[in-house]
Amino acid sequence: MPSQTPEERSPELRKIIHVDMDAFFAAVEQRDRPELRGLPVIVGGDTNGRGVVATCSYEARRFGIHSAMSSARARSLCPKAIFVRPRMDAYREASRQVMTILRSYTSLVEPLSLDEAFLDVTATTADGALAVEIAREILDRIHRETGLSASAGVSYNKLLAKLASDWRKPHGLFVIPPERGLAFLSPLPVGKLHGVGPATVKKLSAMDVETVLDLRNLSLEFLVTHFGKSGGWFYDVARAIDERPVQRNRPNHAVIALIAVI
Predict the structure, then answer these.
(1) Which fold has domain 186-237?
(2) Catalytic pick from 29, 59, 110, 116?
């Protein structure tokens, strides 16, 4: 039986917000050291060794620098970049402040790393409050109380909320309502979907599948045959269906992995 649309599956759709700090580590450095503001700042490892970029300011991103790039490559792209060693204690404290703000709106907060989290505000909006207004208030409070900026995405599931938070960075707010979910996804590269990694992108490309719409045109049987259990997930997310709940106290493996590479 074909998967149902979000409206058919859940008559009372969830209200999910994804909050993502803007260039978090670099922003903390620029906040704490005013002389760095407006400059290309890179937080990461040694340029003479095997260090990598943990994050960089938006000024550095204009040179094509991005997270996980080797520090040596980043230096070659922007010789005038200012490299800063990570200060994890400072980032953890800033993260603690942000998460405290988020938890003042709902207990259903799922941190993904120090600088991003999902919130399920379905219950919070039961009295008529709008999720987009909650998101806007959260962004204003983060800026006012921490001196940092964040972006937020609002939608009816985690997949779309996370995509939306990246849509108008920095300090952006974007909403994807249920009636716009399919249209929003259709032109996106398949690699934008949660769970579709580089190897899968390459395999799909060999099948002439480049966009989410291309993926949506494949049958469930075809996807399961070629991708096993993951095929069912690909079938659903191509149709804007993601029933993963927001989980409190989720283990933060992403932070451990990040510390390991910097």
Answers:
(1) DNA polymerase; domain 1 (1.10.150)
(2) 116
